[in-house]
Structure formats: structure tokens, C-alpha cells
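Morning, I've got a small favour to ask if you have a moment. It would help a lot if you went through both lines with me. I owe you a coffee for this, so here goes:
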Amino acid sequence: MNDRQPQNDEPHPENPLPAEFQALCREGGAGERLKTLIEMARDEDLGGDLEGGDATSAALPDPDRRVTADIVHRTGGPLAGLPLGPMICEAFGGRVEFSTETHDGVVAGRNAVIARLEGPIAGVLTVERTLLNFLGRLCGVAERTRAFVERVDLGGRAFIFDTRKTTPGWRGLEKYAVRCGGGRSHRLGLHDALLIKDNHIAGVGLEELGGVVRTMAEKAREERGDSLKFVMVEVDTLDQLQAVLKGASKAIDLVLLDNMPPPMLKQAVELRDKLGEGVELEASGGVTLESVSEISRTGVERISVGSLTHGAFWSDIGLDIRDGSGLPWDERG
């Protein structure tokens, strides 16, 4: 039986989040894409004019006055995206310093200060919205993920996984945010795993299904070797599952059970236990916060949830500039 997902405030010990973020930046040119994404967000606000694009801040009586500003999580929740802070400040010219004493994966309390900015007031106000947009989105994904993780039945053995239903250009970041919320990462894209879905085998009959799946799996392993994270096939009936297990169980790692209700999932587990030892099962399709606990008790090892990303709301994260007394403006007496 798999180890349980962590239900505490710490990130999963198998893959420390700082190392995962660095790996994200190295993955196939992802670092350059991330830099470009930040620059695109900056240019949306500044109109491509780094020096004079912020009309309001440029009109301040003393735009160079040094200030300290708190980044505050208004509602509280798991943190994600803090390593982006220095990168975003650098993209805005490097005049503002970002610092934090916490880290991604920690669950912040209500109105907790999660980071600080120091620098000229014009620079702080110019970088504010872009920084908050990144943090709000990623903390929101982490928060929704944690909600699913917490509802996985403690007696079950299922882990929560993400999908490819991500914001274009944000996939690596959003999948990282899922990890910050206690979830796990499915394949990153079409390149790093074999997932034979219904449209790949449309028109293939039950008698041929196992052989077709086995042939595709063997071909992919031969051509791609260790670069494949796993080989998975999608089924939506128990008959298809039986055909796959009988004909290809030695060639595959996982079977995705698409839109099966809990009673059928339990039958699928029983069938797998008889015919496909070593093959893991993943429930997918229409998984909600209301249904995930029951699904986790069916015996499947994995539950993939598209709404971890496409259904996440933004976390309420704001910026409060401190006055001369060292207090945020909303705390002055």
C-alpha cells in the first residue's frame, strides 16, 4: 500500500519544493519560458516602457522615497510561487528587494505576512500587481489542491494528481503549485509519458484491444526508453479493462478509469487484482470535492482532478506599505 499524502503544513518529503522549483526552471528551456512569461506580464502593465510606463507612480511627489511593504495573505492558505519574487523584481529593473522568511508548501494563517518588498516607493508600486497576480493564482491552485487532499479518506490509498488542463504558458507553474498543495504531478505534456486515450483506439474492438495496446506500449518503450514516465491506457467500461489486463498487463503501468461511478470502480479494482498484478488504477473524470472521499475508498491508487487548476480561484493576497513608524497603513493608531 502506498504511503499517505502529507496532511500537515510541510511539503512532501520525497521531493523538496525548492529543488522542484529549480528543476522546473531547468526543464527543457522552461527557465527561459518563465522569464518570458514574467516579462510579458510586466509589459502588459508598462506598455513596454520599463522606465516611464507607470504614469501614476512617476507622478508621486517623491518617487524615490524608500519604503517597506508587506505581502499579506488575507485569508490564509498554502503558499506557492514565492521563489518567483526575486525574479519578478529583477524583471522590473532590480530596484526593489524581495525577501521572505517562509517557504512554499507552508500553510499561512489569516493576514499572515508572507514576504516583504523594500525599495523606492515608485518601484514597489510598479511591481505590485504583477507580483500579486502570480502569487494569487499559484496560491489559489495550491489551496484548491489541499482541499482535495484533505478529503481523501484516511483509510484509503489514493493520491491526488493534476492533469494537462492548465493555463497556456503556465503549465509548469501550475503543476508546481499543485505540489505545494500536497498533490502530485501527472505527465508534464505529450512528450514524457504514453497515455493511450479513447480517440487513439477508436474503432478497435474488444478482441483486438489488448494486442493493440501492447504493441503501442512496446513501440513507445523501444523508441523512447527511460524518458517515458509511464505507460497508461484509458478505458470507460469493465469489458475494456478486462481486455487490456488480459492482453497487455505486462506492457503497461497504469489504467485510467474514465467517469466510472464508485461501485464500478470497486469492481475494476477487483478485476485488476485478479488479472493485472502490478498495474495501478487511476479514477478520473468529474471528480469533485463532494465525491473524492468516496472515490478514495474504492481501492484505486490515483485520482486525477482537472479542476485543481481550471477550477481554482485566486487567493486574496495584498500589499500594505508601512509608514514611518514601521506599521502598515491599515494598522496605524
